[in-house]
Amino acid sequence: MSSFSGAIQRPLVAAAAVAVASFSTDLSDKFPFHGSSSRDCSTSNLAHSPPCSSMHEPDLSWVSHISDSKLANLSFVTQIRVPVPNVHFRVPSLGQNCGSNLYHSSIASSPLLQNLYQSADLPRVPRPAAYSHGVSNSTSEVMYQWHLPDLKALGDSNCSFTKSRTVVVLLGWLGARQKHLKKYAEWYTSKGFHVITFTFPMGEILSYQPGGKAEQSIHLLVDHLAEWLEGENEKNLVFHTFSNTGWLTYGVILEHLENQDPSIIKRIKGCIVDSAPVAYPDPQVWASGFSAAFLKKNSVATKGRVFSDESGIKVSIGSDETLGLKPAATEAALLLLLKKFFEVILYLPSVNRRLSDVLSMLSSKQPNCPQLYMYSSADRVIPANSVESFVEAQRRAGHDVRACNFVSSPHVDHFRNDPKLYTSQLSQFLDDCVLNHCKSH
């Protein structure tokens, strides 16, 4: 493996160089698309609801040798903000004083609410030394955070008890940080739900090994969830995943739950999938995901399609090429390098075998709970037809499935582009699939 690593390290370093060089292009990050576009949202096997029409890329340990300190020696890096990660991070200590790590610390510190929120306390679990270090930069990043529900949302509903014993687990996309999931967490907590936001530091993705540090981080989260659920049958889980990274993370969680305590899987009441999946190892998809993570707002993957108002309906006109939405030369070079890279990596025996196991779990062993897929025809990372094919396969397997095509919004950007439709889809899903029993009383 050591002889093989040198041959692969060079193209990835070259890819990183192309990534940072492309930051010199001044691209706008303003998107004028809002909720007036035609949407396609559907339900299946949920007759009581009205019809309406990432990646966890397995790399190798040698990649961890690529550090920001080394790239900083390159002359052009001093003028560019480079998303090069460090691999060290800390895990928050969640226990009786967990409020100090939360966005809602003022709520958590109220003595009046200690009994109401007691179910949110996680037992103290010894932290492995490898996970106890902070990120070596000015912004401290944690692996996951717990967010307590808004008090007002728990005081005026027959479903307050159910909500206070339901945790929504948000699994972030490739390159996502805690701050990126904050708006999603705030929406759920405003509805009365507990929320956990889980993200991987980029270093953990870049240094991925089957069964290694990244999966150990997931197992630690699962252990905390299992201890929170223990002893109270009324406590339940909802998962909300983003891109293929979040979706594959969900698959690893399901695997771990199946091995640790299969009964916990029955406590999963719903799964929401945003901008995923591609349920097979496609080098082009993985290359697009990494390119978007490296370039962020400078990537063409973050741009929605052009729409034209005709007869009061906004419709897509032309292809990416005719609309002038082709990637810049540097991004095109980066995509080519990454595609060649993943054509090798994804088919290494150990990586391919691990990936196949997770994809098999997600394709054929999903929990018996409703699923909601939110995607877009304008997504340049996850093709819409891949999502639609997976949705149909899940329906044929007998699952309750909803799907909503946002048509014009870019990858993992549906909430920002059309918050009204996005939140209405979430609300209807939670009402029908999570809160249905309490609302019927």
UniProtKB/TrEMBL annotation:
User: Does the entry feature the keyword Transmembrane helix, yes or no?
Assistant: yes
Its taxonomic placement starts with: Eukaryota, Viridiplantae, Streptophyta, Embryophyta, Tracheophyta
- Family recorded in the similarity comment: Belongs to the TMEM53 family.
What membrane topology does this protein have?
Single-pass membrane protein
Q: Name one GO cellular component term.
A: nuclear outer membrane
**Does the UniProt entry include the keyword Nucleotide-binding?**
no
The record's keywords, sorted A to Z, are: Membrane, Nucleus, Transmembrane, Transmembrane helix
InterPro entries with a match to the protein in the record: AB_hydrolase_fold (IPR029058), DUF829_TMEM53 (IPR008547)
Residue spans making up a coiled coil are none
Species the sequence originates in: Clitoria ternatea
Q: PANTHER family attached here?
A: TRANSMEMBRANE PROTEIN 53
Its chief place of residence is nucleus
Q: What is this protein identified as?
A: Transmembrane protein 53
* UniProt-annotated location(s): Nucleus outer membrane
